[in-house]
Predict the 3D structure of the following.
Amino acid sequence: MNLDFKPVNIEDKAIFNRYFKEDPPEISELTFTNLFMWQCLYHPVWAEQDNTLLVVINPDGSSPYGLQPVGRGDKQKAIETLLTYLEGKTDMPEIKRAGEGFVNNVDRTRFTCTPDRDNSDYVYQTTDLINLSGRKYHRKKNHLNQFKKSYEYEYRKLDADLVECFINMQEEWCKMRECVENPTLLSEDYAVRRALIHFEELDYRGGAIIVNGRMEAFSLGEPLNLDTAVIHIEKANPDIPGLYTAINQMFTANAWPDKGFINREQDLGIDGLRKAKESYYPHHMVNKYTITRI
């Protein structure tokens, strides 16, 4: 198939944003920042055909797969195009992490849609994450209050002057977690650095908590669609009790009070991550699916 797939570069941002505005995504993968920052691990490539944006992910160490097509064009045709393109590159051509809204319109006489719980996104009401009201958030509220009482802190919005501090904190975090020994953490380090280096060219927002003059937590996120923001990165010093709760609450309150929902991405099937995400009581899940030919 003669499609001109090419790597995602910063110059492509306007094209991606045009498609995302025409066809607002519900899944956390479909933002330009996300695709651009994770290039070192997932090596996304893209092409346009008949008013659809086609994206193929080429992860290190595993088979390539497509993401759900975006745009005003014929989605069934776009699915066929992607699967045909992938036939020569993998034994099992697949479109992965397709959102439930997209899958509801897939022709089930031609394609099989298999649930993918590990990659389904957790979505929370913004007011829940800000207010932490009610019995179910009692422990979270206590953690937040304990942090506020125990530490001198300052919340700072990310701007060009703070980028270097964010990069320095990422370096410290990587030293604590020994990123060089862990390929996944090392790839995440590259992704965070790539996003920070291009801060002024991308559409995300960031926030940080300074404790005793040191940046000890930060978070990065961006608008996903009209009523939802997505959080891509959240880091905190694990030796400071309540700090993860604090950066979650403060970043939401300062960066996203105008959004109805916060998408905090998937748990990847990791037990600890699943428990942490469930402990904030998601309003709903964006269920995802793998699409293959029948």
Notes: The two ends are 21 Å apart (CA to CA). Residues 122-265 form a domain with the Aminopeptidase fold (CATH 3.40.630.30). The chain has two domains: 6-120, 122-265. Residues 163-177 form the longest helix (15 residues).
